[in-house]
Amino acid sequence: MNVKLRVLTIGVLFFAGQSVMAQKAKRDTSAKRDTTTKTKEIEEVVLIGGIKLDPAQKVGAYNVVSKANFESTPFSSVDEVLNGRVAGLNFSSASGDPGSSNMITIRGVSSLIGTPNPLYVIDGVVVGKGSDNASMMESWNPLASIDPNAIENVSVLKDASATALYGSRGANGVILITTKKGKYNQKTKFEFSTETGVQDRAFDKLKLMTGDEYLKYGGILMWNSQGGKGIAQTFNTLEEATQYYLDNYIPNDEPIKTSRAYTNWSKEVNRVSSVVNTYNFGVSGGGANTSFRIGGSYYQNSPLVKSSGFDRLSINTAIDHKASEKLKFGLNLNYSNIIRNTYFGGRASANPVTSTIMLSPFRSVYKNGVFNQDSWEKDANEMTAGFNPVSILQETGQRSVINSFIGSVNMDYQFIKNFYFNSLFGLQAQFMTERQFGLKGHPVYIGMTEDQGFFGDARTTILDWNWSNTLSYRNIFNGIHNVQAYAGMEYQDHSYNNLYAFSLTMNDPRQYFQFADKVITTNSDLAWRQISYFGRLNYTLDSKYTLSGQIRRDGNSTLGDQKWGNFWSVGTSWNVFNESFAPKAFSSLTLRASYGVLGNIPYADQWGSQYDAYATLGYNSQVGYGGNGGYAGISNPGNSSLEWEQSGHLDIGADFGFFNDRLKFSMDYYDKLTKKAIFYAFPAAETGGPSEFFANVGDIRNRGFEIVIDAVPIQNDNFRWSINANGSYGKSVVEKLNVDRYEFAGGTSDSSNELVALAPGHLLGEYYTWLWAGVAKADDAANNIKAGDGLWYTDGSQTAVTNVKTKAEKAWIGKNAFPTYNVGLTNEFKYKNLTLSFLISGQFDFLVQNGVHSYTIHDGRFPNRNQIAEALYNSWTDAPGAENFNADNPKALLNNPSESRLESSRFLNKGDHIRLKEARLAYSFGEVFKNATGITNFTVYVRGTNLLTYAFDKELNYDPESTSNSWSWVGKGRYWYSSPVIRTMSFGIQIGF
């Protein structure tokens, strides 16, 4: 008996690997099992050149996520939807601002540099790894160009057997995106859907001090600092200290000083809530020889930060044509136009999100009818001097227009019986215009004057194309020998062209450089290419035993003298269920294993490192800060010995089911060892050259276990309850490195992280810093410790403490920012026409860091800046009437002489959390309505995303899924002044006829 698997148009339905099967065939009464092919509406996973991964002969490790999860989603990019739905996949976001870059890792991190993201392939077009390509925007996620509503399904490939055909670019895993198509001999169908949602912060525990609290803290700070500890004079009461603070640190010309009508900077900068709207349409159908689909969508989001916006118009089409029974053609084309308004980001004072954290509530937005741009003269080191976030949002800005084309054409020709030729040409083109402007009076950049503005204009063209051609032989002998052999080649070409112009001397608000006194321009033209030859052989005997082998030879232009590498994989599976001796308790049982060696070039998909194998010269220039020196120097020494990273992948798995597959399990153990990992090599200082260059110097091992459970506990004519649960365990360890330890010091840049390091035998990115020992509860005269002092453990043994940080040693923490455990749980309840579904995700056993801790609690370093309320209520003080001798934060002193605010394990929090990722309640009108109206589908629903977040660490006040960038693992787990992750409540309608 064959049972079709109906894909629901509503709810959340997740398919994992072999779970695309609705039901196994019945057993026959003979000794041998029925090997009849099961009917399924979900097609095989299609790789390059027409090569497929058939779920009925599953060898590799992969999961499939259905289209129901992508339709009318409030998320701006595809990668956000995968969070929590795939075992072994970990997601983190650099910002809740739509269009910002994200980080996805599959089975850990396998390289020491470059993005850890997987390779994305859309309808056969290799589109890269979602790397940030922005010139002016804080970040840009190219995947935001893709309309999620146009997606039929997404396949996540994990092991060597599944990814080897993508060679060097598939070492981090591969995510295949298949867009929707029409069907042959199908009546024309029309579909329309719309969704409107309201958004706010998903996890908001960063509570700033109010004006009264700010003033009270200022008084306590003065009391703590009296008598030569920052202030020469002394006070008799806390009121005297508070008045001293009011007189000396609040400007007299601030009207708030007397009115106490405090400024709530968060409300001034952010909308109370943001709104997201999506509109989608599609028409599809087909005749005997031609099928088609044309669709489009409009996605509009007004994010939380005022003046920001994201508008995307997308059009997609797919045409398939049978010229004959032997010759077929296909066309897929996706176009999107995005207009994005955003703001200054990073740890710059011009970032409005930063300013809301730090600005004093005693500072007014306006003064004398104009924007208040006055400096804070009492503190020469005050970074916020002159920066008014409201005026910056209104009179400066960043606006980008991105036009993206992703298209492919393919041909499949059976030129002789059992012999086929497949050709696919794919193209991705992105045209980006980014503009940045500021009117006079906004000194956002160093070197600006009060009477001139600034203007920047960047034009970027990114063009990627790939052409693959494959010959194949496919035949079944005697009904039991299934042979498939493939041989092919693929060519990839990637180019990046950027023209950048900037001026700090604009004399007119019109954005044209003819109004500038001086314009600085620069341009970049980068390219890299790869050519590959590949082969694959699949053999299945009697629908029981499958053997799959593949080999690929890649040549890549970014490497040194050894540009070519040979990579391979072999996998096997055994369908035990079709054996006569299979235990009767099972309704399906397959064992599988694979091993392969893949190559990798971690920086190939990021622009700027394409010529690391060659010595390059740089012309001396001080863009924006002075003239040209007129001389050149070595900017990169190059390394002609650069070669492929090589990753050996072992995967052992089992898929089995019970009760006619109403309860199914899929389990995988993996062990991946990457050798010759590329990282920095350090020449001797005596050479006089650059301090570092890239070389193959490290080994990294990733081990883990994954499990997927699908269950249908209840199923009858009126009610169905289905469950999908996925979980994974994994760790990444550095086994070899060319130095004993490498630290990522460097202050506030995205490529730095003061808290993490690399060393042999330690977790990749393990925290390595000073160990915070808390606050001294009493005086310790023998060690010159006073009650209220901040303390550090002297070393990793944690047996002694000191209040002098320089007397303490850094130590390994034993944790990193990558969760050891990831889980996802999806439930769907369907009663007649009503469906309720929800997805819960969780991440456990990892630490995250507050990259702005030194500002949110600065222990008195910046008396003119605001802080979180904890600085007032949980800091040690003996101020009369405000005594607190049992606090977690040390005694605040002017200028923070102990530097307790700077990096240490005090910055770290447990990131363990559970999140209600999505919940959806839908009602579909029944047959009576359909027959009366002719409408084949009318569904209304309400949905929520990121509804609830439970953090196990009660002191965690920032989102545990944060990262400061997506182009390197170094920023993983770091909250970095970003727009928060968003919670959405929405209402939608789906109509089909």
TrEMBL record:
Instruction: Identify the residues that the record assigns to the TonB-dependent receptor-like beta-barrel domain, covering every copy.
Output: 332-838
**Chief site of localization:** membrane
- On whether 4Fe-4S is a keyword of this UniProt record, the answer is no
Q: Where does the TonB-dependent receptor plug domain start and stop, copy by copy?
A: 60-174
- Which Pfam families does the record match to this protein? Plug (PF07715), TonB_dep_Rec_b-barrel (PF00593)
Q: Where in the cell is it found?
A: Cell outer membrane
Regarding the membrane, this protein is recorded as: Multi-pass membrane protein
Record protein name field: SusC/RagA family TonB-linked outer membrane protein
Q: Which organism is it from?
A: Kaistella gelatinilytica
Q: What is the lineage of its organism?
A: Bacteria, Pseudomonadati, Bacteroidota, Flavobacteriia, Flavobacteriales
